[in-house]
């Protein structure tokens, strides 16, 4: 069996997506997501100029070997561009293998470990009152877990405050927009949000919060401690994780569960965090961490330390990643939760899929493969549009972590 063609489809049905389609000499094809928010075309070039020429003629059934070929064979290892390109190939090949086996992907991974996959949605508002209302909307929609982010008085466009009720899209401008940040103000305001949420809705729902890499380890420890009475499901990206050792300080000072990893590319980004049990949830997902082949290894390592998965699922991960992640989540023994930011109707139409939401859970379908396709004719109606993520500056102009 041979790969006879592969192409990259770039489209922007509400936001940009990069999709790889691999075709075989037996007529079966597979689809993979390669979207890297704000840097999409770098991955397009990596695939078109450097990966596709090697793929043609390869046996698509040799998923592991092809993964190693592109990882070891590039010589230059890791990084978001490389690992997304590898992920796209890997997912397309798993799609092909599952279609050939006439099975939904989770069956190939080892079968079902659960019926549905608990997801969390994003509630946000420009202040506490608005966020409390937004959380109420998610509760009405049947969510069991909700991430809450609030604007903070005195901070220009604090992280996480979107424009719509269900759709939150940070990559919004032709050149990066400039947002503000003030840690002292956030440290005073965020605990009040969670206090009000628990006073209003009680303790029956899981609440999550994203620090989006803004705090130093000690500030993260202060916030984690202040949030303890409100029993968060997790406090995410409490501090930047390039220095994995930084989490030790946070861990020593708070029992609030910690989650990290949406920007991780490989198991090496998380090894010390996992082996020293400095986190509770690992957030890496299919497109970010080299596809199913690599994410499986990461999840297995995490399981040895009772760390559970919490796959990234923002709108910049296409329905192809969401569909594949749901098969992974349905199988993985140490599943924790799945992030679920809804895509726009235009995006859902371009990527027909068989997963569905019901009572706070997502269910993958039974279609052979990962269950997500691309309508190329429709995709062609939405050409690429440059869109950057914002940057963040402190009040005195200093660049900060967005
Ligand atoms: C999350 C994330 C996202 C990222 C986005 C960047 O927890 O969902 O932090 O919202 O900001 O994926 O492209
Ligand atoms: Mg996040």
Automatic annotation (TrEMBL):
Cofactor: Mg(2+)
Protein name: mannonate dehydratase
Pathway: Carbohydrate metabolism; pentose and glucuronate interconversion
SMART domains xrefs: MR_MLE
UniProt keywords, alphabetically: Carbohydrate metabolism, Lyase, Magnesium, Metal-binding
Keyword Ribonucleoprotein assigned: no
One protein family per Pfam: MR_MLE_C
Protein family (similarity comment): Belongs to the mandelate racemase/muconate lactonizing enzyme family. GalD subfamily.
Gene: manD
Gene Ontology molecular function: any one: mannonate dehydratase activity
Entries under InterPro entries matching the protein: D-mannonate_dehydratase-like, DgoD-like, Enolase-like_C_sf, Enolase-like_N, Enolase_C-like, MAND, Mandel_Rmase/mucon_lact_enz_CS, Mandelate_racemase_C
Species whose genome carries this gene: Novosphingobium soli
Enzyme class, spelled out: lyase
Function: Catalyzes the dehydration of D-mannonate. Has no detectable activity with a panel of 70 other acid sugars (in vitro).
Reaction equations catalysed: D-mannonate = 2-dehydro-3-deoxy-D-gluconate + H2O
Domain spans labelled Mandelate racemase/muconate lactonizing enzyme C-terminal: 128-257
NCBIfam families (UniProt xref): ManoateDhtManD, PRK15072.1
EC code: 4.2.1.8
